[in-house]
Design goal:
alpha/beta
């Protein structure tokens, strides 16, 4: 029977892709660490070679961001990721503890469903392919429809690199007929072991409700605190560089800035000096109605667009051509305060607080409204301030004295280079880490017996009168020595 319906064709394609991926993953599972690493290196090299071509395609397809910055993201998603993970042990025995007689074996999860967003399509495909294969898995991509062409071309580059390195090209594949039904079938397929979801909140919620284990990430809505001891010109430069990098499409980019009240005038003056345009009340209200849709979600027309484009779309006539970002003063959080939401474009909210304690409370309020578990950044020379905020702010990343967009993904910091940033339990995510190979494999423990039942019973308390009391002998000398060895061993590893 010939299939003609698009939905049916897409679901049939999913079954075929997953079947081929499963076979390829089984072949990969028999390879050595060196063979796996050769494949990952080949993908990284291919990503760098094709970085500009793929960046141009992504920009043409989506209209988002800047080609030059997308080139950097493609190199980051290929070579940057590879350099960080290349020496990781991910195949076979990962660890052996001779003292406590335990061994840890790496176990690939199998076939992964990878959801690719339109904001970082080519770089995310490169990154997810590398970490999936490094962990011994195959991955099948569900592409965002608006970025289908550039994602398919990226997958073509990746598959050729895999084949040339001696692997099965079906380790990485992509749905060519993207439909909601195809994505749903992919996530629920019995041979898909894990979902790696990067995209909008609705997509992430669908991944978690699919019944398949999933690693998803919530929205970013990170505030940036300009603390009074900071180098103000440098801090502002970092923030504006971050917010204009690929026109704000990285979810770790700053969404609002906040400072003490007595610094507000100086901060505004420095921001204006470096190209920020502060909206007046009328402009603020006009743009505020444009950046969110009626249902309260972000208007896709502002995503990854230049200041000039956003100003024209919103009908702002007085914004100078030289403006790098649009800044709106905000005094509240939640419905009725559109600038308190995530804005994946060159738009910033501007808050003030009475002092650092008030600032911290406002930062927490913003994040609990949207962005909990994601990223917070601050600029300061006071380590006590870093400690104060790090203990209180509900995020997985506190980024200090660097551009938050680049620091959060691990480009300007020593974090795992990643384009999927876990938000932890507070952000409804399965991990708080920058997702890498170690989140895409399981471990199998091999443990040898150290004590006999008689030894364990010897240390049991005396409960003869109904209340358990120490037997006097307590833990046997043999058990105590074993515990001491265990503690010393763990301290050395730490």
């Amino acid at each position: 029977m010939q299939l003609y319906d698009k939905d049916l064709l897409s679901m049939q394609e999913v079954r075929e892709l997953v079947g081929a991926a499963k076979k390829a993953q089984q072949e990969l599972a028999g390879m050595t660490q060196e063979q796996v690493d050769r494949i990952v290196r080949a993908i990284a090299d291919a990503g760098v070679r094709n970085a500009r071509r793929l960046a141009e395609m992504a920009n043409e397809d989506t209209g988002f961001g800047k080609v030059e910055d997308k080139v950097i993201k493609n190199v980051f998603g290929s070579r940057g990721v590879y350099e960080y993970i290349k020496d990781m042990k991910t195949v076979g025995e990962l660890e052996r503890d001779e003292v406590n007689k335990t061994r840890t074996i790496a176990v690939p999860v199998g076939v992964i469903a990878g959801l690719i967003p339109s904001t970082n399509p080519t770089s995310t495909a490169l990154y997810k392919s590398e970490i999936a294969i490094k962990a011994g898995n195959a991955i099948v991509f569900s592409p965002h429809p608006t970025a289908l062409r550039c994602i398919m071309e990226t997958v073509k580059v990746i598959r050729q690199a895999i084949s040339e390195a001696g692997g099965n090209e079906n380790l990485v594949s992509c749905i060519t007929i993207p439909t909601m039904e195809a994505t749903d079938n992919l996530m629920r397929h019995r041979d898909v072991a894990l979902i790696l979801a990067t995209g909008g909140s609705a997509m992430v919620r669908a991944a978690y409700s699919s019944g398949t284990p999933a690693i998803g990430v919530g929205p970013g809505n990170g505030p940036a605190y300009l603390e009074k001891t900071c180098d103000l010109p440098l801090a502002v430069k970092r923030i504006l560089d971050s917010k204009t990098f690929d026109w704000g499409t990285i979810c770790a980019s700053e969404q609002s800035i906040i400072c003490d009240e007595d610094m507000a005038a100086a901060v505004q003056a420095e921001m204006e000096k470096q190209g920020a345009y502060f909206l007046d009340d009328a402009e603020r209200a006009k743009l505020g109605k444009f950046i969110l849709r009626a249902n309260g979600t972000m208007n896709p027309e502002i995503v990854g667009r230049s200041v000039e484009t956003i100003a024209k779309l919103a009908g702002l006539d007085r914004v100078p051509v030289s403006a790098r970002v649009l800044v709106a003063r905000e005094d509240g959080v939640g419905r009725g305060h559109p600038y308190s939401n995530e804005k994946l474009g060159p738009i910033l909210a501007f808050y003030t607080g009475k002092d650092y304690r008030d600032v911290c409370e406002k930062v927490c309020t913003i994040l609990r409204y949207e962005g909990a578990g994601h990223t917070f950044s601050m600029h300061t020379k006071d380590e006590q301030m870093v400690d104060y905020f790090a203990k209180r702010v509900p995020v997985s990343r506190v980024i200090v004295n660097t551009a938050s967009a680049l620091g959060g993904i691990g480009a300007s910091t020593a974090l795992m280079p990643a384009l999927t940033l876990g938000c932890g339990a507070v952000g409804d995510s399965a991990t708080s880490e920058n997702v890498g190979p170690m989140q895409l494999l399981n471990t199998r423990k091999v443990a040898y017996g150290l004590r006999e039942l008689d030894d364990i019973r010897q240390g049991a308390p005396d409960c003869s009168d109904g209340i358990c009391q120490s037997t006097g002998g307590g833990i046997s000398e043999t058990d105590l020595e074993a515990i001491v060895r265990m503690v010393v061993s763990r301290m050395k590893k730490a």
